[in-house]
Amino acid sequence: MDIRIYGLTSLMPHAHRFFQALADTTRLRCLMLMVAEDEVCVCEMAHALGEIQPKVSRHLAALRTAGFVLDRREAQWIYYRLHPDLPDWMREILLTCRRALAGQTPFCTDHAALASMPNRPQRRCAA
Fold first, then answer.
1. What are 19-37's pLDDT values in tens digits?
2. What is the pTM of this model?
């Protein structure tokens, strides 16, 4: 059965997956770091979140598979950023979440941990 709500039929599967991604704390914390920093290395996210790298990588792979983020490799580092083709309404929701959550734990502590991370990978400009 095709459900039509104000012409959103084609967006419904993506909307469902998008809100599923936001419902997971680890994925939401990673997305909030990407919104704030534009591009973040897996090792930086693992450090900021205080999680092991395989766990963070698994969540980032889920976000990449769903089409919400892109990755790029630079030497041994893998960087993630929001997908440039992300619909405007999804970007607006992420920006609203960032503004609303920036002062709350764990999001503020994630950002502080990232800012104080020693030996952060040096990055070239993303293409």
1. 998 999 999 999 999 999 9
2. 0.85
